[in-house]
Amino acid sequence: MNEAIREVLAEAGLPPLPEPLAAPLVDSHTHLDTVADIVHLDTAISLAAAREVGVTHIAQIGCDVEGSEFAEELARTHKNVIAAVAIHPNDAARLGRKKIGAALKHIDDLASAGDHVRAIGETGIDHFGTTDDEGQALQREVFAAHIAMAHEHGLTLAIHMRDARNGGEGDGPTQGRQAHDDVVDVLDSEGWPERVIMHCYSGDADLARICLSHGAYLSFSGTITFNSAGPQRDALAIVPDDRILVETDAPFLTPVPRRGKRNGPYLLPHTARFVAQQRGWDETRACQQLTDNAFSAYGGAW
């Protein structure tokens, strides 16, 4: 199987399999439907490649109605996968007020589909993809609606936040703070759910302290390996051991040394090993701690 996977990855122009991890690990945020659409890598191959390197459990994240339906079905049919369902802030702005109500109703229905749906997300604020006042106002309203769903269903909330000064996917962590401040403002107004994940954490240590004061988990993607990630590394340094997650956000945000290529859950070992080095952990401890954290963040093992 290993050689067959290597051949498929090579034919697709994707990075090779890294060395397997010393213990099992969870990809706490990925988009296998988008991997299939953009990279043309079958979901079964993505899951198999991940298992080859020790990434045994996946959190599949929805960004719109179709993607949330995919996440729910994948999690329902694969015991090592859980689903998050939501309307991404940029998708909310694109839908507009005439269509957003029906979309949110569908997400609310999916949220009660069963224990395989563990989170509402990804939801939040994005000032890079949505710049007009009406779109940003609608983002805040939809974010508030998602927070209410997380409270109602007792689910984790997976948050996306990106500032207008961010250069876009692949250009490294956010440098501004407006989206971050808006996210905190809405959470303060609506009430922080019991379990909150700051997906692809792009803030600094000051923002980290605010999030941590509410018990949030900070999830670090491949961007933590970038040279531009000084503020994020400062944040990583102050996060308690039990509040750190790692993710791929595949097919985006590929870590060094494979930056510039498309991403997949099988490349998570690069990020995990970097985080372990930053924390002074050996690899086995890192995998065990990060896996325990992911299970806790999503309401229990799966």
Number of strands: 8
CATH topology-level fold name: TIM Barrel
Helix share, percent: 40-55%
Low-confidence stretches: 167-175
Q: In the CATH hierarchy, what is the architecture at level 2?
A: Alpha-Beta Barrel
Note the total helix count.
11
Q: Determine the strand fraction and express it as a percent band.
A: 5-15%
Mean pLDDT: 95
Query: At the fourth CATH level, what is the homologous superfamily?
Result: Metal-dependent hydrolases
Count up the domains: 1
Largest beta-sheet details: 8 strands, parallel
Strand order of the largest sheet: 1-2-3-4-5-6-7-8
From the alpha carbons, calculate the radius of gyration and give it in angstroms: 18 Å
Overall outline: globular
- CATH class equals Alpha Beta
Helix and strand string, N-terminal first? HEHHEHEHEHEHEHEHEHH
The rounded distance between the terminal residues' Cα atoms is 25 Å
GO cellular component, one term: cytosol
InterPro entries: DNase_TatD-rel_CS, Metal_Hydrolase, TatD-like
Protein name: TatD family hydrolase
Pfam families: TatD_DNase
